[in-house]
Amino acid sequence: MDLTLLVLAAGMGSRFGGLKQLSPINPFDETIIDYSVYDAKRAGFTKVVFVIREEFEDEFKEKITSKYKNHIAIDFVFQDVKDLPEGYVNKEREKPWGTGHAIWCAREAVSENFAVINADDFYGKESFEIIANHLRSLEKTDISKQCMVGYHLVNTLSENGSVSRGVCEADKENNLTSITERTKILKKNGNIVFIEEEVETELADDQIVSMNMFGLTPATFSSFENDFISFLDEKQHELKAEFYLPLVANNLINRKQSTFKMLPTASRWFGMTYKEDKQVVHDNIKQLTEQGQYPKQLWNL
Questions:
Q1: Predicted local distance difference test score (pLDDT) of residue 271
Q2: How far is 147 from 156, CA to CA, in rounded Å?
Q3: What integer pLDDT is reported at residue 191 of this predicted model?
């Protein structure tokens, strides 16, 4: 079965400062994206679709995708704030509409079961294998079964500041029951806490969280469109409101239209939320390479 990897790469990285997706992390100027595509290819993915902003298309192609042309099929879609469902217009909006909108923008480029990932997150070889195996079991015309790779919270923190994570709950059959977005999670006095309205709440180290690694079928695009329309009806004039992927997952679950199998992984996440994270990523990649998990250079041209 053909599988597509959908890479959300339109964010400019305000906290990082610039195009962190293009920041090299090994001596061959390869990036976190390169490692994700490499892991996806060896897990059996046959195509990669990048969601980017049109203004950095040339730089993105030059630094990232030119090296893939002999290895895996590539396509691009643009996340344009003006790309809205028929009948909707918003001339004031400048900020992208969020991850849910980014996925909807790929509706004409993806016709296979697909995995969604962030461009600036390292997910690990095991995670791609787990999600690929599950995607192969799904009918692409069916929205009733989807999946999400879940990480232990302790494996997803930054040493350099707070992070946003989707805190997940599941039933006894490991089906996702809810995702609650927590926008300020950090370690404090040896514990993991999230802070909301100046109140600190402790979270367990092994709490499962979402890193936006979802497995979806093409039939789901209609749900993204319907939920985006509802979002626009309510919030289109809030210039900073965002339409997030987990919102669609929650809605599908609450409407009993879909189950999301939570696929746990012991992989350790790392990524570049802050500039200071780059050295941590570099050191981790070096260690994995020395252990033989990756070649020194991923893409030999």
A1: 86
A2: 19
A3: 94
